[in-house]
């Protein structure tokens, strides 16, 4: 049974730069920081950085929840991301956007007023 998002792992060519950038984006420092893997706890979920990887935008897109999507797009693009796919309403007041991080990965953001935190296991 799939229980929901647990870990998102992004391959990065420059682990130090990616660690610094994602620390700024999410406002937290890694809880696990080793040369082979850097892990962040983001609202109870894992963001992992894997060194010496080949980033790409052809794979899955993971969406991180936000309360103010416009403000987060402005903040994260100011940190060096670019808009890969514009903010769009996908129905029922749910809005998404895709940003390209400086390392070649897609960082998805979602505002979903129907998300039920109590359903997270």
TrEMBL record:
SUPFAM superfamilies for the chain: Glyoxalase/Bleomycin resistance protein/Dihydroxybiphenyl dioxygenase
UniProt-listed Gene3D superfamilies: 2,3-Dihydroxybiphenyl 1,2-Dioxygenase, domain 1
Top-level taxon in the UniProt lineage: Bacteria
InterPro entries in UniProt: Anthracycline_SecMetBiosynth, Glyas_Bleomycin-R_OHBP_Dase, Glyas_Fos-R_dOase_dom, VOC_core
VOC domain boundaries: 4-112
Pfam families on file: Glyoxalase
Protein name: VOC family protein
Signal peptide boundaries: none
């Amino acid at each position: 049974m799939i229980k929901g998002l647990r870990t998102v792992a992004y391959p990065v060519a420059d682990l130090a730069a990616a660690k610094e950038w994602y620390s700024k984006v999410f406002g937290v420092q890694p809880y696990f920081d080793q040369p082979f893997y850097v892990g962040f706890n983001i609202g109870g979920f894992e963001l992992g950085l894997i060194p010496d990887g080949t980033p790409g935008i052809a794979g899955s897109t993971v969406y991180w929840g936000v309360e103010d999507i416009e403000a987060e797009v402005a903040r994260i693009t100011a940190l060096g991301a670019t808009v890969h796919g514009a903010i769009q309403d996908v129905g029922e007041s749910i809005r998404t956007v895709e940003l390209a991080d400086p390392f070649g990965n897609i960082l998805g953001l979602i505002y979903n007023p129907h998300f039920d935190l109590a359903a997270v296991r």
